[in-house]
């Protein structure tokens, strides 16, 4: 009797082993996978070690965390701006499509997807979310193994789909994107993808068309200001005159940049005022740029050249920064259009040449010369 039971047990064990092997085999060869497209996904038991989504939860000591992490919105309601996107996503969470978030950095793309994950899974987030970003290897092997392994398994304690976040996916190789295209389709029943990137044009059209796209635009001042004010109050930062305006201006809609500047200024200076912000970032002060513009439009060639050179040496300003900051002045000046175009063209060439490592003094001479010529044109046009 005992012998019989033992044999029966062994047989059951072998049958289970066989089933297990059958379920896992599709992952071993990509050819077999294609045929098994409609098979139920294999089952896995949630691991206690969790997936890479734990990265953010690992910021346990939020007190000492960088402010960009410490003040990262935890829920969709806390995310500033992007009201239409957030409203649409809130309606979609029950039947989430594949998502594609794109737009400039520091606008809340990663924050939004993490808030979605938190809303859908709550404390089970660690087991249900796989997050890969640019620091991870993202060649074709990762798509074939890591993403596929995660997407093809199903957690037995939850019937929800899994979420795979591919942050900064514009850095993925073309081959990996090709492979991803198929994986996305194959495991739609079991997993959703959220692709995040800065440049959507770097994604192959086939991947783009499988996702619902949302563009995150740079944050407007009205959203950045209250958010920064909140951090200032929470951290007891002493704000000086012009400090907030400088933080907003230098951030140019990138909340991460504004927060990072605020934190480094707070650590380096007693008071965060305009001078502290510009000094801290090594950015030329607005009054120095105004002086450069005054010299360019009023002084003789020699005086302008010497004056700007002296300013550069004393304040440590790079010519590339001057070129970038002078540009908006030209655009808003009432110059004849031909002169405006010639100046902008010259500045663009100058920036290009500086980027390829040419001599700064020579380029400065060229720039001053272009302005002297422009002034002559303005006088001619007026006569
Ligand atoms: N819309 C936003 N509302 C509130 N904070 C934001 C917003 N966008 C960015 N931030 C802040 O900037 C940091 C970086 O945002 P993140 O979502 O990682 O940007 P990215 O768009 O580059 O993924 C966040 O930790 C958060 O503190
Ligand atoms: Mg991001």
TrEMBL record:
Which N-terminal stretch is annotated as signal sequence? none
Instruction: Return the SMART domains for the record.
Output: AAA
SUPFAM superfamilies assigned = P-loop containing nucleoside triphosphate hydrolases, post-AAA+ oligomerization domain-like
Q: Pfam families, per this entry? A: AAA (PF00004), Rep_fac_C (PF08542)
Q: What GO molecular-function term can you cite, just one? A: DNA clamp loader activity
User: Which residue ranges does the record annotate as region Disordered?
Assistant: 32-64
Give start and end of each AAA+ ATPase domain: 95-222
Q: Which UniProt keywords apply?
A: ATP-binding, DNA replication, Nucleotide-binding, Nucleus
The answer to whether keyword ATP-binding applies is yes
Where are the compositionally biased (Basic and acidic residues) regions? Answer: 55-64
Its main localization is nucleus
Biological processes annotated in GO: DNA repair; DNA-templated DNA replication
Q: Does the keyword Disulfide bond apply?
A: no
Oligomer status and interactors:
Heterotetramer of subunits RFC2, RFC3, RFC4 and RFC5 that can form a complex with RFC1.
Instruction: Tell me the protein family, please.
Output: Belongs to the activator 1 small subunits family.
The protein's name is AAA+ ATPase domain-containing protein
Q: What species was this sequence derived from?
A: Chlamydomonas eustigma
């Amino acid at each position: 009797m005992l012998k019989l039971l033992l044999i029966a047990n062994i047989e059951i064990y072998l049958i289970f082993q066989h089933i297990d092997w059958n379920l896992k085999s599709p992952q071993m060869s990509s050819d077999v996978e294609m045929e098994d497209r409609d098979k139920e996904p294999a089952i896995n038991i949630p691991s206690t070690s969790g997936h890479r989504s734990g990265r953010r939860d690992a910021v346990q000591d939020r007190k000492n965390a960088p402010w960009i992490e410490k003040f990262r919105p935890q829920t969709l309601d806390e995310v500033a701006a992007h009201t239409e996107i957030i409203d649409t996503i809130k309606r979609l969470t029950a039947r989430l499509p594949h998502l594609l978030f794109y737009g400039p950095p520091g606008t809340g793309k990663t924050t939004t997807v993490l808030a979605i994950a938190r809303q859908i899974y709550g404390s089970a987030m660690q087991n249900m979310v796989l997050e890969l970003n640019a620091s991870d290897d993202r060649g074709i092997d990762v798509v074939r193994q890591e993403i596929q392994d995660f997407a093809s398994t199903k957690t037995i304690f939850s019937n929800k789909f899994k979420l795979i976040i591919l942050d900064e996916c514009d850095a993925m190789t073309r081959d990996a994107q090709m492979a991803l295209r198929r994986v996305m389709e194959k495991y739609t029943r079991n997993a959703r993808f959220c692709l995040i990137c800065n440049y959507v044009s770097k994604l192959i059209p086939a991947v783009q068309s499988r996702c619902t796209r949302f563009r995150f635009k740079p944050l407007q001042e009205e959203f950045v200001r209250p958010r920064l004010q909140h951090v200032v109050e929470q951290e007891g930062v002493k704000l000086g005159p012009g400090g907030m305006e400088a933080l907003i201006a230098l951030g140019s809609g990138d909340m991460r940049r504004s927060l990072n500047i605020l934190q480094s200024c707070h650590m380096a200076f007693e008071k965060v005022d305009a001078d502290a912000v510009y000094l801290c970032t090594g950015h030329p002060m607005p009054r120095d740029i105004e002086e450069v513009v005054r010299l360019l439009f009023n002084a003789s060639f020699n005086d302008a050249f010497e004056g700007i050179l002296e300013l550069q040496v004393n304040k440590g300003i790079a010519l590339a920064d001057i070129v970038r900051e002078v540009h908006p002045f030209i655009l808003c000046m009432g110059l004849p259009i031909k002169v405006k175009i010639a100046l902008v063209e010259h500045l663009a060439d100058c920036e290009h040449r500086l980027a390829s490592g040419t001599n700064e003094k020579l380029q400065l001479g060229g720039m001053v010369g272009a302005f002297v010529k422009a002034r002559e044109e303005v006088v001619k046009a007026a006569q």
